[in-house]
Amino acid sequence: MVVKLTTEWMATMGRAIRFHRKKARISATQLALIAGIGKTALYDIEQGKAGCRMETLMKICAALNITVALEGPLMREFEVNHATD
């Protein structure tokens, strides 16, 4: 799924995180502990509230084995030109 970074992005990300958490049968409290974040932060993200830290989002995604990818018309060229950076 490709999701553009718009005001709707956090709502979509929050729903995806909640879906993965529930499918994994993990409570919000358990996921917060696993990810090393506060349960209020997780609740806010699952509710689609804007303003979370990227580090927090990355911790949640890592805990749930969710990958976030960048896609764009120039990504292939970027990858070729920055392969050795």
Describe this structure in words.
This protein is an all-alpha fold and 85 residues long. The protein has one domain: Orthogonal Bundle (434 Repressor (Amino-terminal Domain)). The protein contains 5 helices and no strands. The protein has helices at 9-23, 28-35, 39-46, 54-64, 75-81. Helix 2 (28-35) packs across helix 3 (39-46) and helix 2 (28-35) packs across helix 4 (54-64). The chain is elongated. The relative contact order is 0.15. The model has no long low-confidence stretch (mean pLDDT 89).
Q: What is this structure's SSE topology?
A:
Blueprint: H1 9-23, H2 28-35, H3 39-46, H4 54-64, H5 75-81
Helix pairs in contact: 2-3, 2-4
Q: Give a quick account of the main beta sheet: strands, pairing sense, barrel closure.
A: none
Name of the CATH architecture: Orthogonal Bundle
Radius of gyration: 15 Å
Under CATH, the topology can be stated as 434 Repressor (Amino-terminal Domain)
Assembly form of the protein: single chain
Q: Tell me, briefly, the overall form.
A: elongated
What would you call the structural class? mainly alpha
User: Uncertain segments of ≥5 residues (pLDDT<50)?
Assistant: none
CATH class: Mainly Alpha
User: What sequence of helices (H) and strands (E) makes up the elements?
Assistant: HHHHH
Corresponding CATH superfamily = lambda repressor-like DNA-binding domains
Integer tally of domains: 1
Per DSSP, what share of the residues sits in E-state strands of 2 or more residues?
A: under 5%
What's the total count of β strands? 0
Distance between the termini: 28 Å
Average pLDDT works out at 89
Helix content: 55-70%
Count of runs of 4 or more consecutive helical residues: 5
